[in-house]
Amino acid sequence: MEQVRLSDLERNVAWYRWHQTAAGALFWLPTIMLFFVDEVGLSRALQLQAVYYFAVVALEVPSGWASDRLGRVVTMRVAALAWVAAQLSLLTVATTGLGGVWPLIAAQILLAAGYAALSGTDSTFHLDTVEAIGAVDDYERLEAAARRRNLVATALAAVVGGALATADFAFVFAAGSVAAACQLVVSLRLIEPPPAATVTPTADSPQRFGDLRTIGRSLRVPIVAWLALAVVVQVVVVHLAADLTPPYLASLIDGGLGAPARGALAAGIVGASVAFAGAWFVGRVPHLVRRIGVPATIIATGLAPVIVLGAMSWTVAWWITPILVFRGVQGAAVSVIAPRVVGAHVAARHRATLLSAMSLAGRLTYGVAALAMAALTSSLIGSLRLAASIAFVGWVTVAVAHRWVPRGQRSIDHGHGHRHPETVHVHFHRHDDGHHDDHVHDDPVSAGVFHAHEHRHDEVHHQHPHTSDVHHQHNH
User: Fold this and answer.
1) Half-sphere exposure of 313 (CA within 13 A, CB side)
2) How far apart are CA 29 and CA 162, in angstroms?
3) Exposed e or buried b for every residue in 363-397, given b needs 16+ CB within 10 A?
4) What is the mean pLDDT of residues 206-223?
């Protein structure tokens, strides 16, 4: 593999923020359902949404495999190209009205392909980059800053998209095409980070097993298995809250779906508020994790969508709408926490695949939940009450299951590999000049936990064993 300059990798971090900004400019997000209703009717619109979710499920793991095997950057470029093509397809339908349902189906598949390709790949690309430049301890802060820009862009685009829809849906997709094109241009500036050598998988060697079998073995690590459960529940609950919000808002507006412009603007305003709340909260996630740990952070933030669904199921009233802005705080927390937890326990070549598999499991579970709701109730309030019940049961399950996570795995404050009873990590540092910095442990020495730090140099190999508590600092 050709040498990658450190300066190029450092520029990756800056370009990643711009990529997240462009990828967050989803002008179409609050309006696309109303556009489908306007074009093909409510029944076909629901079928088109089903096409999207089935396509995401079908493409999620293959896209994660492509990210791990073919490269993060090329996969991110494919995502941008798919979104450009999707927006142009929607723009064509909006301006000409020709083609029937098939261009819309193609657009949904392309949107799903872009999402699946980007899911897990972008954050893993960022983690690989900061590992390569030796800044892994800053990952949560850097990822939170990038995610904050993504959410701010989503918020602004939601308001603008809703406003543009009041004039013509074509304006929405024209803006979406420009945003996707900007995302593609930025992705062309990114440099593929070198394969990370800092973590060996907690399961058996990946060279001896296929990707899926290796991922299955990684789930034997309690914190990884618990995180997978939490992600599945989070995906289900957040989708329930997001998909039921537009009809809830429509029930508050005269005309409902018969007034797509007003409905789009209301959905855009609420969507912007959700994104702004997430942008505000995501910067506080690293501090919260350091104070109370990974499980407690996810459990605490998981209450937000449960409360949102509970409030909507209780009454349809305007005073409920301010509560809706908090439905996305757990998603903001998980977006920062999940890549770091996976990165601490899974080899670099399997990280995106595992994150994609978690997302896939969540969407499959959501599809089952949605079908069950459709079979059990046909009213808005009935659907909301069933959704609130599902959310509460899921939250309780995650809260109870965290008791099986060992205390030593509940924090991600440290960025180096460690040897625990359930987990083995090895962290390698490469230096061309044959020198290395000392590791300073500030915590009191205690028995029972062994940490092995290996440093590889061109001509010298060192191994430094330490015994200390799992919560420590490394100063380089």
Assistant:
1) 19
2) 9
3) bbbbbebbeebeeeeeebeebbbbbbebbbebbee
4) 63
Residue 275: pLDDT over 80: no
Phi, psi of 461 (to 5 degrees): -125, 125
b/e string for 105-114 if b means 16 or more Cβ within 10 A?
bbbbbbbbbb
Selection from 16, 249, 252 nearest residue 128 by Cα = 16
Name the H helices within 253-293: 260-282, 285-292
Confidence bin at 5 (pLDDT 50/70/90): low
**With bands split at pLDDT 50, 70 and 90, how would you rate the model's confidence at 121?**
confident
The token pair at 86 is 């999707």
Rounded CA separation 158/219 (Å): 37
Strands 461-467 and 450-457: antiparallel
Check if the beta carbon of residue 428 is closer than 8 Å to that of residue 198.
yes
- What is the pLDDT averaged over residues 225-231? 89
Helix axes 285-292, 329-345, angle to 10 degrees: 60
Q: How far apart are CA 256 and CA 249, in angstroms?
A: 8
State residue 419 phi and psi, 5-degree precision.
-105, 115
Which DSSP symbol is given to 137? G
Rounded Cα–Cα distance for residues 196 and 273 (Å): 37
pLDDT of residue 182: 95
Tokens of 114: 């872009």
CA dihedral (268, 274, 280, 286) in degrees, to 10, reads: -140
